[in-house]
Amino acid sequence: MPILSTENFKIDYTEDGVGQTIILIHSSISNNQQWRLLVNSLRDRFHVLAINLFGYGQTSPWTGNSNQTLYDQAKLVIELCSEYKYPISIVGHSFGGSVGIKLAAILRDKVLRMVLLEPNPFYLLNQHGRIGAYNECLELRNCIKKFGSKGEWVKVAEKFADYFLADHSWEGMPEKHRQTFIDRLPPNFHEWDAVLNEETTSSDLKDISAKTLVVSGSNTRRIFREIAELLSKVCPNWTFAELANVGHAAPITHTAKINKVIEEFLDGNQ
Predict the structure, then answer these.
(1) Taking a C-beta distance cutoff of 8 angstroms, is the pair 16, 32 a contact?
(2) Which residues have a Cβ under 8 Å from the Cβ of 247 and sit 6 or more positions away?
(3) What are the tens digits of pLDDT across the range 150-179?
(4) Is a pLDDT exceeding 60 seen at residue 7?
(5) What is the overall mean pLDDT for the chain?
(6) Which one is the CATH code of 3-125+200-266: 3.20.10.10, 3.40.50.1000, 1.20.1730.10, 3.40.50.1820?
(7) Cα–Cα distance between 202 and 57 in angstroms, integer?
(8) Distance CA 16, CA 146 (A)
């Protein structure tokens, strides 16, 4: 995979295809390889860049000298995109969706289309008084910060897997997959700062000009249901779709189903 070196960090990404540029932004506890089947489907008509965020793959880890922000993550993508022509389109899953929203707010009309797969802009829950759901986020954050700061990543992994995948996921996960999961957890320690402390407002979201699709799963958790509901009220011009019998990890567990929706939207069929 190519590496883009800047003055302050290295960016690990994949590149394939020709045409308008599509940026794929992965979720937490994943990497850009979660998009490999989507890349294969898009490369005949799009120029596809799949980036690794801070701490994933060979991209520089977060230094920890200050709290991470969504702007910091967005700068990685902007730096990568500076090598290519605008406009671009964005596909983001979970934390990658929140980075995508920040990008679209910064780049404005340079973003043509955006697909948000269960994005996690948890800061909106606090801004809009969704205290029950916001407290659920804080409970998760506090657990990850508490045990992550002690290096007790197994405890973090169990909490994270059982919440974001499904109940008892950690118990049923094969040992070799458990270690991979644990190895990918450290960047998430800093990502909670980014999604809880962000100051982007509803008014900022209304100014996003990109044609936007928000995709949710019917089996997802409360915090994501409330985020989708909030976004539908704040941005009624966006398109919203709920897919039956899938959860938060649907881009990984139900890849073909999700990819079909993404492709149809990027091709202008929705």
Answers:
(1) no
(2) 165, 166, 217, 219, 220, 221, 253
(3) 999 999 999 999 999 989 999 999 998 999
(4) yes
(5) 94
(6) 3.40.50.1820
(7) 33
(8) 40
